[in-house]
Amino acid sequence: MLLDPLCSYAPHSPLPTLPSLCQPWAPQPSRGVRVSSVLWAGHNKWSKVKNIKGPKDAARSRMFMKLAMMIRLAVREGGANPDFNVQLANIVEQCRSKNMPKASIETAIKGAEKSKGSAYVLYESRGPGGSALLIEILTDNKTRTHQEIKHILNKNGGVLCDGARYNFEHKGVVTAAGEDLEGRTVSLERALELAIESGAEDVRDTQDEEEKPLLQFICDVSSLRSVREALDSLGLRTVSGGQEFVACNSVQLSDSDLESASRLLEVLSDCPDVIRVWDNIQAMD
Question: Reduced to 3 states, what is the DSSP secondary structure of residue 62?
Answer without folding.
Answer: helix
